[in-house]
Design goal:
The structure is a homodimer.
Chain A (H helix, E strand, L loop, with lengths): L23 H11 L3 E3 L6 E3 L1 H20 L3 E2 L5 E3 H4 L3 H7 L4 E6 L2 E9 L4 H11 L8 E10 L13 E11 L2 H21 L6 E4 L11 E8 L5 E11 L1 H5 L3 E3 L5 E3 L1 E8 L1 H10 L16 E5 L7 H15 L4 E3 L6 H10 L4 E5 L1 H6 L1 E6 L10 E5 L3 H26 L1 E3 L3 H10 L3 E6 L3 H11 L2 E6 L17 E6 L3
Helix pairs in contact in A: 2-6
């Protein structure tokens, strides 16, 4: 690609990133690599999460884990390998996952008599353990989460979005009644929605999946769906009500207060590093990443403007860096031997929410310049002069402002690309055009969904109750049962 | 086993734990299961880390991770699977690990053309990535840690001590010079030693491994070694100077400031959940676990002494629990419908450092009774009366006191079972008797070590420089090169 194709020719770090709009996929791949979030590895389908990318994952983990604990969950760790005969007990689950499983057949010099699956998800092994642990209604509910690596045999590789191995969390709970299991499923859906909004600065639609999009073995699957700049939806987390399907397949029973032995009701729910892919795509711009502050490994980078022979700005940068770190900020002092302009471009490309510039003039005035990454160059409010003594107090509201503006921009995009459509031709055209989230009253029939998909590549993302006045399915004219968002998707 | 064999017949939770001294192994297995740290799983060689055990692991992670970050390290994540041809490049490493590897040979319906190893450790895949990432001396040092699961094909299963899959951290660093690599190796050894002492309340001996006990591919391996109550040593963490062995095998080079292309010097260092096994064995007593406060998932359990018809103690327990949680303590209010005596025994068995008893009388006096787990029943200082208003302030020093007393007890044991021996016959007798750490001037010859092992089952644990006056190897009479601790080991 020629240099002319690039938006910001003067910036060395940025000139290797193509502009975002013409080819989102090329921009995405370039930025995830150049920002050192990931590297491709010599292992088919697998990427390395580099320190900067892992820093985002650690922030996601900390924020989400605190929410899990606040809602009464504990963490545990279950085996990576699952004997084949155990995996085979829940029929739909097997059908859904068997084609994606990597199999261990040899251990040391020994050929195994039974294959061991690398977990594609852990309902099976956890179900087997719950059958052992749960005896009485007093043992319920069981509320456990696991942070783990899982593996699904995939051909394609796209950092965060599609890799053979990925990192995620999977919650697995067991309850005495169907009502409690449903309540848990919806509670965790809401945790995900709130996290997406307040941590990832991503507005999402939460709702129930159609029957064909359900998790294999679930009686109901819920999801949160974000909208990407190319008009495709990205499923960012799911929460499943498994009913008694797994408890019957794995014989998870308890004796009730009434002395009756009965099967528990289970749920599972997960978010993976895919969420980071959504964050990158939704918020980035032609200059590179724009990270929501709560996920950013570095909240503020401090760049001294050093002229030869004068290292006062560098000393001051280190002093301010130490003070801000002490005040609880994630900061980095960029003391590398490079030009300030090069550093500005590099940290903009890597999406650091705030940049603090410290020059000789600033030192004289006792103030520094703070630059927001979320706003365009020259935009009102992009640069603020802050007295050094006020920095620790003023950075927090500035970071909040960056979060809010990233959210507002993403929300404006989602609103502008959500279409309530009542005309059949318009519905099919918008689906085929990848216009965004197409919102219609829908019949909920798999045949109708399959037809729309064949014609337009769009599927239902999720559904919610009908609104007053909804009558016929816009896609086929049959009686509507739910409201559904249709979209093409990742 | 008959009830008579049990130390504390009256306590329902405790009566299922055999006494510790007669059969440490039986005690250990019973307590790890009964305290719900782990469960055996249907997967050969694999255990489940249950929430209470995972709580210990989370505390270990938090404490150790903070130390890694304070010493300039960042976390990252590398692939689980390693293509066979890559694993085969470093000769000693292959020889050491190939017999322990689990192999993936099938993915989905496909039979693979090349086997994929599940990582037994990650020097290989990380070395391959470092070769790509490191170009210039400006890229050095690279200081990365990974928290991960690894798998080594084992026949035996002992919770924490020996399992096929286990959780650990593995640090991997690359440096410009041999001196910097050695400095890093020793720095991380000291991090482990300090952690063992100040977090796990475990005194350890730190030193260099003998040549035969080195990590496959290392030029020097250091370890920390703890002493268990049965007189066997337990290697609790290792730190390896890999020299240029891996950088040459995986072609990790950089251009120096002098424009010369040269190979980097690498290190690796790891601690696994094995450390939890050491903590359990070293500190526990006949009543069960005694957890060092910094690793304890629950620092204080609050037990209301409820008489029928009076739920004031329960209300007060919840109120105090909420206040202590707010003050930053990890507390649990045991509001289950069970007798207080049953709860006391259960939480003692599970090793909670402090118990807070709240009865009707206590409420009248405005005070509660705090009971320390580290001291024997009736021992001076075991029970303290604390005014409710002072609890938040007084628990922290009480927890410190528990830590200090557990450390002091373990240190007294280590000191009493460390023998400086100068007589050959006494040396062989003490090694064979499993007396503890046998400290001698040693010749450092592999033949001598092999002979001692064949005769007594003891091996060198680690070594340090000779002291003034050391002359001949106590084991064989040849000139001594180092001081060495010999012991039988886990």
């Amino acid at each position: 690609m020629s240099d002319e194709a690039f938006h910001t020719k003067g910036d060395p770090a940025v000139k290797e990133i193509p502009p975002k709009a013409p080819d989102l996929s090329a921009w995405y791949t370039a930025v995830t690599l150049k920002a050192e979030l990931v590297s491709y590895s010599p292992v088919r389908g697998c990427v390395v999460l580099r320190p900067y990318g892992f820093g985002m994952w650690e922030n996601l983990q900390r924020e989400l884990d605190a929410r899990f604990k606040d809602t009464g969950h504990e963490n545990a760790y279950f085996p990576l390998l699952i004997p084949e005969h155990l995996l085979m007990r829940e029929a739909e689950h097997v059908e859904g996952f068997a084609p994606e499983v990597a199999w261990v057949t040899q251990g040391g010099q020994e050929t195994l008599t039974e294959r061991l699956a690398i977990r594609p998800t852990s309902e099976v092994i956890i179900g087997v353990m719950y059958a052992e642990w749960i005896q009485s209604h007093r043992d319920l509910p069981v509320l456990i989460n696991q942070w783990a690596n899982v593996l699904r045999w995939e051909k394609a590789t796209r950092p965060f979005l599609r890799t053979m191995e990925f990192l995620w969390q999977e919650g697995h709970t067991a309850h005495a009644t169907a009502g409690e299991a449903r309540e848990e499923t919806l509670k965790m859906l809401e945790v995900y929605r709130e996290f997406a909004e307040n941590v990832a600065a991503l507005p999402v639609y939460a709702g129930a999946k159609s029957a064909s999009e359900r998790f294999p073995g679930a009686i109901e699957t819920y999801s949160i769906e974000a909208l990407m700049p190319d008009g495709k939806a990205l499923q960012s987390a799911t929460s499943h009500d498994l009913g008694q399907n797994f408890s019957k397949a794995y014989d998870i029973t308890f004796t009730g207060a009434d002395q009756q032995i009965q099967h528990v009701h289970t749920t599972s729910w997960g978010m993976s590093w895919r969420m980071l892919g959504a964050v990158i795509m939704a918020h980035g711009d032609d200059r590179g990443l724009r990270l929501p502050p709560k996920l950013a490994p570095i909240e503020a980078v401090i760049v001294p403007i050093v002229k030869s022979g004068d290292d006062a700005p560098l000393q001051k940068a280190r002093e301010i860096g130490a003070a801000l770190k002490k005040a609880g900020y994630r900061v980095r002092v960029d003391d590398r031997d490079q030009k300030p302009g090069w550093k500005f471009a590099e940290w903009e490309m890597r999406g650091v929410p705030l940049r603090i510039e410290i020059g000789a003039k600033d030192l004289e005035s006792g103030s520094v310049v703070v630059v927001r990454r979320d706003l365009a160059r020259g935009e009102e409010g992009q640069k603020t002069t802050v007295p050094v003594g006020n920095l620790a107090a003023e950075l927090r509201p500035l970071l909040s402002a960056v979060h809010d503006s990233l959210y507002a921009q993403a929300k404006a995009f989602l609103d502008a690309h959500t279409f309530r459509v009542s005309d059949r031709a318009e519905f099919f055209a918008k689906c085929a055009d990848r216009s965004g989230m197409i919102d219609i009253p829908w019949c909920a029939r798999p045949e109708c969904e399959a037809y729309v998909k064949a014609e337009t590549s769009a599927t239902t993302r999720n559904t919610r109750p009908l609104e007053p006045g909804d009558a016929a399915c816009v896609a086929c004219g049959e009686p509507a049962k739910v409201r559904a968002f249709f979209a093409q998707s990742y």
